[in-house]
Amino acid sequence: MTRGGDEPTELMERLARELNVYVSAGRLPWPAPAPDGPRSLVAAEVHALVRRLHEEHWHRYGSDPVPVGQVEASLVPWDASDVTALMGELASVSLLWPSHAYMDRGEADAVARRVVAALGPRARWWSNRDDAGVSGVTGTTMDTLVAGSDGDRFVVLIQVEDD
Length: 163
Description:
The protein contains 5 helices and 7 strands, in the order αβααβααβββββ. The chain is an alpha+beta fold. α1 runs antiparallel to α5, α2 (39-56) packs across α3 and α4 crosses α5. Helix content is 37%, strand content 21%. It starts with 7 loop residues before the first helix and ends with a strand.
């Protein structure tokens, strides 16, 4: 149990919004291998979420999600403070229609801070967004994700938009 009883799975569920903001969290299937730590395992968890959502919803939009190797290649390291802000943004504001809010930004930021704290200071964080843009992983018009792991547990939040 983490400080205050916050479990990442429970916290992440608070950030989900049907049809646009999806989350996954839990334990990695086996200990993270060195040298890249949990990155490849987290990429597999991102891919599993994207595949499931494609089969349930996005298949009607045409393009298939990218393979797991491309998901892993899209993961750019982020530091905890920046990823906290990104997670809050993705949970609260539409990528396609920035004037549309999914939830209160302050509430989203507060939950995001708790997620980051729950995984702790040794957690590693990634996104498919960098200074140059976003490497899409879903096959929809727009997607941006944030993922992290402490080597044992993982969290993924992805916002998907299609016009």
